[in-house]
Here is the input.
Amino acid sequence: MIIVTTDQLVGKQIISETLGVVKGEIVQSKNVGRDFMAGMKTLVGGEIKGYTEMIREARQIATKRMVDEAEALGADAIVGVRYGSSAVMQGAAEIIVYGTAVRLKEK
Here is the structure.
């Protein structure tokens, strides 16, 4: 599956019909150990690696869910991909990814 943030694919032609908007989402929480270590890290500053890993994992899961939805529609690519995130409660973040599923023209 080709995934791009642009509306066009260089060297590829999108069939005139789009298959629709596809999305993937997840609400991920951190564990107590990560939460404690993050609290300690805020005292000295720097990257909170536990949170970085949590967000990276959540983004991968959300992306897979979007790709699965696009594949179910018969898509070859997803264009115009955008990511968003928000805190839904203390200790939990929502990651959403969405784009337009398309079929590519056969060569």
Remarks:
- Residues 10 and 71 are 21 Å apart (CA to CA).
- Strands lie at 2-3, 14-29, 77-89, 92-104.
